[in-house]
Design goal:
The chain has 185 residues and is an alpha+beta fold. 30% of the residues lie in helices and 13% in strands. It is built from 4 helices and 5 strands, in the order H-H-H-H-E-E-E-E-E. About 10% of the residues have low confidence.
């Protein structure tokens, strides 16, 4: 057995050094174990990436109250702006646009889906995103040298959007803040 200086403090949970094992080998084994644990942690499913709305929205991440969906961020604010614009009751104010997909947003999503005559599930998947994209129309008034302007024409209200020419990523004029907002999450 390798001699250990008795003046060193060794925690009780540390195993004794085996015969023929040097301290350097033991440190190396510990580092390998840490690296292996870190590698395994990288393989565990990660939350949805911080993707932005792009293209025709049909491949946007699903929004819902479940942990398997996107539940917060600017992509949710975009969706809440759509609900605000299409509000037939006139009761949805801009304070609704908070970026959190909770039970209130899910309920208003079900109402929106019912009015739009599509599957009612309270989540925003490809069918719901596709239906919403149908109300997006070109508007040259918001064009810039790098972005093309659009409007979302809702039943009650309208808001502006821009699509970047280089990569198709969308931004929108947030009805709550009046500022151009990205669509990441």
């Amino acid at each position: 057995m390798t001699a250990i200086d008795a003046s060193e403090s060794i925690p009780a949970t540390v195993r004794p050094i085996k015969k023929g094992e040097t301290l350097n080998k033991r440190i190396l084994r510990a580092l390998i174990a840490i690296a292996a644990a870190f590698s395994i942690s990288l393989m565990v499913a990660a939350p949805a990436r911080a993707d932005s709305a792009a293209g025709s929205w049909s491949d946007n991440h699903q929004l819902c109250t479940s942990s398997s969906c996107v539940r917060g961020g600017n992509i949710v604010r975009l969706w809440q702006s759509i609900i605000w614009a299409d509000d037939l009751s006139g009761t949805v104010g801009t304070s609704f646009i908070d970026g959190e997909f909770g039970s209130n947003t899910a309920a208003k999503t079900r109402t929106w889906q019912d009015v739009m005559n599509i599957g009612i599930d309270g989540s925003v998947g490809p069918q719901t995103w596709g239906k919403a994209y149908g109300a997006v129309n070109r508007n040259t008034g918001y064009d810039t040298s790098t972005q093309t302007g659009y409007f979302y024409y809702g039943y009650n209200r309208t808001f502006a959007l821009r699509r970047q020419n280089s990569n198709g990523v969308w931004t929108f004029l947030n009805p709550r803040t009046g500022t151009w907002t990205g669509t990441s999450h």
